[in-house]
Amino acid sequence: MHIVVIGAGYVGLVTGVGLAGLADHRVTFVETARDRLAALRAGRMPIVEPGLGEAFGAARDRIEVAGSLDAVRSPDVVFVAVATPISEAGDPDLRQLRAALADLRAWSDAHVSVRSTLPPGLSSRLPALAGRPNGSRMSTNPEFLRQGSAMRDFRNPSRIVVGRFPETSPEHLAVLEAVYAPLEAPRLTVGVVAAELIKNVANGFLALRLSFVNEMATLAEEFGVDADEVLAGVGLDPRIGPDYLRPSLGFGGSCLPKELQVLTVAGRRRGLPMHLARAVAQVNVEQQDRFVRRIIRDLPDGGALVGLLGLSFKADTDDLRGSPAVYVARRLLDAGHRVRAFDPAVRPEAAERAAPGIEVVDCAEAVLDGAHAVAIATEWPQFAELDLAALRTRVARAVLHDGRGLLDGDAVARAGWAYRGVGRREREAADG
Ligand code: UDX
Fold first, then answer.
1. Share above pLDDT 90 across residues of the chain, in percent, rounded to a whole number
2. Which of 14, 20, 114, 319 has the maximal Cβ count within 10 Å?
């Protein structure tokens, strides 16, 4: 089939490259951002996503990249995957979505499926936004991709959800089924609002899980107990499971924080209290605040230097959106301290934009020189490989704040460092 994907961002690129590799579909990306267009035409990926570049290269002869719909021949189906960021007030910015749907009026009878994340209630307006009398050849198709494992998640989806309009035709649904035919996964075809809520509520539930784990980790700390052994026992309950149960300095990304806001705003606008959604977001803020306050507590007054390991919101991405690491850097800088950071995927100019005044170095060891404290803020596996005993002499103060539970506190203490973990007993350096 010939598939057009509008928006070659985190969702669109993975979707298009995934489909191109699925059943020899031909895929045309339509991307208006000139830098992304240039990168893709040169075969460079504009985002960091393991396996994406290789898959793009392998399907290159079935992939086109266009700056507009003009020169694109009529497709079997169009996926709209443009960004729908939300403002501080929780309102989605629909400019890109409106522009994409307006451009699509040229293809009044094309099959269109919207993959962009939409707040519940907005989906039912899509046919009108597309200038169509109804949604007979339209659907939504929310995605459940995790950054850092998006290609794997695309190829092994836990479910394929299609949101249908009252008028969505069986022919349209058959087109979508043909697109995804090779994928083994439960299929759900529900109303568009239910489809959007499946995504919003799933992410809200994941966030709830994390904030609950983090709140309990803090409680474990107060009892002087390692949360990890408590959570290992909790995770053995098959109804709870061991995954997604790791305490941290907080969760980030462009999705979980945003989904909480979308759910809260949607509920509040309908007069609902949304106690839990609001509390989940509040706990996440307090978790990050607690982490940075504890760093500051151990620092000498003003002008101290903190070595920060990790800036992205999770490992295997360069995405700084909602990153707890960036929050920590900005709080330290605002408090008059210096921050020297390293992240294997984040470009220095992106770090500087996110936390003005931050110093960026090109290797993990360099953040230690003269540091009065070192903090791990992103779960990059390589940070667990540092030879802390050997590196002990490079720091001014051997205090390590492990915001991701990457290290064994006792081993860190034996290496001559004070250990401060999340949900972990504090350890003093072994040599006293
Ligand atoms: C999330 C959802 O998992 C995905 O289904 C949805 O489509 C998009 O949002 P993503 O935000 O990319 O995916 O990453 P995820 O792996 O969920 O991590 C989110 C945040 O939680 C990261 O900051 C991560 O470091 C943190 N996290 C995750 C923890 O702190 N502890 C955990 O156990 C897992």
1. 92
2. 114
